[in-house]
Every structure is written in C-alpha cells, then in structure tokens.
Design brief:
Layout (H helix, E strand, L loop, with lengths): L1 H11 L7 E6 L3 H7 L6 E5 L9 H6 L1 H8 L5 E5 L4 H11 L6 E4 L5 H17 L8 E6 L2 H4 L2 H5 L5 E6 L1 H7 L6 H17 L3 E3 L11 H14 L4 E3 L2 H10 L4 H19 L5 E3 L2 E3 L1 H12 L9
Parallel strand pairs: 1-2, 1-8, 2-3, 3-4, 4-5, 5-6, 6-7
Antiparallel strand pairs: 9-10
Helix pairs in contact: 11-12, 13-14
C-alpha cells in the first residue's frame, strides 16, 4: 500500500529545471530579500555552514518569512539542513512547510540516513496537512565513503530528485585541494549514479568558492554540461548568470534538435527507426539527446 501510494505521488510530480541554485544564509535578511532578483532557478536557504551556531535558532524562526520572500515566479525554494541529529530535528520542524520544494541534505553518506529523514518529513507532512511527497531531496556527497554507496543513496527514496558533489568538503575529507585532477572522478561517479536513478546531476569539476574568475568558471560550467550535468550550486550571485547560460542550449542546438525530432516523426511514419540528417546517422540515442536539448530550452522541464 505504501509503495503504491509513493508510485502515485511520484507520477504526479515533475522534475524541476535547476540550472542554478543560489545559496543564501537564512539569517541574513538582506540577502534573502534580493536572492530571487539574481535570477536563479532556485534559492537554497542555508541553515548549515553559513549560519553561526548562535544564530541558527533565529534563522529557523525567520524561515516562514524567508520562504515567502523567496517563493514566486517559478523560483524553487530549498532549505539546507544540518547533519547533527538535534540540529536536524529542529531544522525539519522549521522547514517542512508549504512553499518549500526541497531539502538539501549535506554529507549524505548512506541510504539509511536518507530514509530516516524521509520518514520524519512524511510524519510532519501528515501532521500539517501538507501534500505527501511534495518536498524533495537534493543529496550532497561530501565524503569518500559515500562514493561507494552512490547507487543506494540515489535510489533510497522517491523524494530523491538530485545529487551533487560537495567539492570543498570532499577535498578536505581526502586531504587534498579542490582541483580538477582530484574532483573529476568523484564528480563523474555522482553524475553516473544520478543518471542511472533518473535524478538531476548537478555540479562542475572545480571549486564552488572560485567565483571571481568568471572566465574559468564559465569554462568549467560549459565542460560540465558537455559531460552531462544539468546545473550547479552557486554561492555568489555572479555565478548565477554564468550557470544559467552554460546549462542552457544555444539557438543552434535547439534548431538542430527540433530538426531531428521532426525528421524522426517523418521517418517513423515511413517505418524506419534510423535515418540520415546532415550527412550523419540518427538513431535512438541521438533522438534522446535531441529531446533533452529541447527540454532544456526556455520554459521547459527537464526529462532525464
């Protein structure tokens, strides 16, 4: 019965389009008030690292007002919770409310932890007459041990919608620097696990903290999209526009994709599964790529 309920819920909830998710410290109201104006697809109201310990309570108390200020005009509202049990319990009590689209789970290291949080959120939704399953999960992978459990984490619960590598924490956990050579393999591991489970793979190969070198950041984001990522997390407003552009198809890509889909329709009517276009063979994988490009276009929802 529970499985059937979750299957029904999952069939009704669309996959969001998150090219850019902007972190905002939940206790700094001037940042909260301007976050949506920066143009991100989603705003992450952070209760974790960016909030000092002695201000976390105040950040939680202000959360309803913060959510109201961020929500609207298609902007997703996410809340990053803390990892420790007592802090997490307080965060969930504060964050499970109407208007919150997802929780960001830091230092996710097992499917069991995801399940425990999912069960707690379900209880709170029931108590508060909120739609079951509306609040999704974005898991941050930040430890080497979590890499060995990615498949289980990605498929732990229907609330899972996205995964991202926490480059800074991961690098610190292995005693290295957040540089390309160290981050390529774990980023690809997260990408493959997310895609296999039908989740959004978020991220790029590099440090999220390097926001001043916009040329380097744009190159990293463009490379990430070629690898298969669909968006990234931002800690500074200057990163938002770069991510929105890098993770969006160009006019030329969209024109090609529409021609592929149109040609596929004509080919199918003729009873053919593969066909030639622009001197190249087009078959099922190419058609799938074309459809995903179209889904990444303006006002479209991503299909993974």
């Amino acid at each position: 019965m529970i499985k059937d309920t979750w299957e029904a819920v999952g069939s009704e909830i669309s996959v969001p389009r998150w090219r850019s998710l902007l972190f905002v410290p939940a206790h700094v109201q001037r940042y909260v008030e301007t976050a949506r104006k920066r143009g991100p697809d989603g705003v992450i109201l952070d209760l974790e690292d960016s909030v000092p310990q002695d201000q976390k309570g105040e950040a939680r108390r202000k959360l309803p007002d913060s959510v109201a200020k961020v929500a609207g005009e298609g902007t997703s509202v996410l809340v990053r919770v803390n990892r420790g049990f007592r802090a997490l319990a307080a965060d969930l009590d504060a964050a499970v409310m109407a208007g919150v689209d997802a929780l960001v789970l830091p230092k996710t290291d097992s499917a069991e932890w995801v399940l425990e949080i999912a069960n707690a959120v379900s209880e709170l939704e029931g108590e508060r007459n909120l739609p079951l399953g509306r609040i999704r999960f974005l898991a941050q992978i930040e430890t080497p041990s979590a890499l060995q459990k990615l498949a289980a984490i990605a498929s732990a619960h229907p609330r899972m919608v996205a995964m991202a590598l926490g480059a800074e924490d991961f690098s610190a956990a292995v005693g290295g620097s957040p540089e390309f050579d160290l981050l390529l393999t774990p980023n690809l591991s997260v990408l493959f696990a997310a895609r296999a489970a039908g989740l959004l793979p978020l991220g790029f190969v590099g440090s999220i903290g390097e926001f001043s070198d916009t040329h380097k950041l744009r190159e990293a984001a463009t490379r990430a999209r070629r690898l298969g990522f669909v968006g990234a997390l931002a800690i500074h407003p200057t990163q938002v526009a770069i991510f929105n552009e890098a993770f969006s198809p160009s006019a030329q890509e969209l024109e090609w994709a529409h021609r592929v889909v149109a040609a596929q329709t004509d080919s199918a009517a003729r009873g053919r599964g593969a066909f030639a276009l622009d001197g190249k063979m087009v078959d099922a994988p190419v058609i799938r790529r074309a459809r995903e490009i179209i889904a990444l276009g303006p006002q479209a929802e991503l299909v993974v």
